[in-house]
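Technical annex B. To support the medicinal chemistry partners, we prepared a structural model of the target in complex with KG4, based solely on the information shown next.
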Amino acid sequence: SEPVYLLGIDTSCDDTGVGVVALTASGPEVRANVVWSQTVHAEYGGVMPELASREHVERIDQLLPQALAEASIELADLGAVAATSGPGLMGALLVGLMYGKGLAQALTVPFYAVHHLEGHVYAAATEENLAPPYLALVVSGGHTHLFDVPTQGEYHLVGATRDDAVGEAFDKVARLAGLGYPGGPAISAAAERGDPLAIPFKPPLQGQAGFEFSFSGLKTAALLAHQRGASAEDLAASFQRAAVRALVGTSVRAAEAYGRETLVVSGGVAANRELRAAFAQTGLRVAFPAGGLNTDNGAMIALAGAAALQARQTSSDLGVSAAAYVP
Ligand code: KG4
Ligand code: ZN
């Protein structure tokens, strides 16, 4: 039988992502994934919401035909449209959400509003063909969230960061060590030339009974070590070791507490090699996204839409609105 083609759109922050997934008899396949990463924010040292919205408006019309061409399909071949409805920057979200809803209405196909973090989770789960139950760890510049996913579409928050997201900590430590931006890949590269035991950073919150994360104390400890003259390489290696141990340690304890043997890890920080290596040694079955699907993108939103379609979930009402904060 013919596959159902789903378009996925993500404009939650500073990346405009449009992707296409084909839902075939053997499951979902990513057929296109085009992302425009905004650079206008670099000079401000942080994302400027209004500029992000305007860039999404300017780019999305170009990305749609690119994604369709990459998937070798026509607009009329689309069988469903999915777009992120939250969480994210309100103005930015609205661009992709309205675009997706308009497209679905014009094509008279079902529309699926997708939670951004659910998109991240499906980016990893689909790679290994995993179905719930599993634990899901989303680690990015904006999130450090651990969920229990007992069945398709059901998410229970197990723990999150009390302060900085882990990717944010990578970015800040890279900046103070003069390693540039984005910080994650820079720390990872510098760490290969450093000694992970040079600075005895304690992995945060490892004695706790709960499943929370915290990275601001580690960031401050890194600043102090830098001021005392630690090399950028040793700082990178020691910081990375502590951050990875905190993520892996808490996830493993949570897996035991929740009786889960499978974990999906996604978000920008899931690209980290040390993190992947450390999880590989836990004895848990661990899934990571394929290349290009770690960071924000539209294909992961189409994958979440495909899962909803496969589970015969009812599509979203076209009155659905964007939400900056979604529990
Ligand atoms: O998922 P993402 O693209 O955007 C957000 O939703 O935040 O994640 C970006 C974050 C940045 O903080 C970046 O430094 C981090 O992911 N990152 C990494 C690596 N690659 C990207 N962190 C650690 N190691 C990496 N290799
Ligand atoms: Zn994200």
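Notes passed to the chemistry partners:
Residues 232-258 form the longest helix (27 residues).
The chain has two domains: 4-121+294-310, 134-259.
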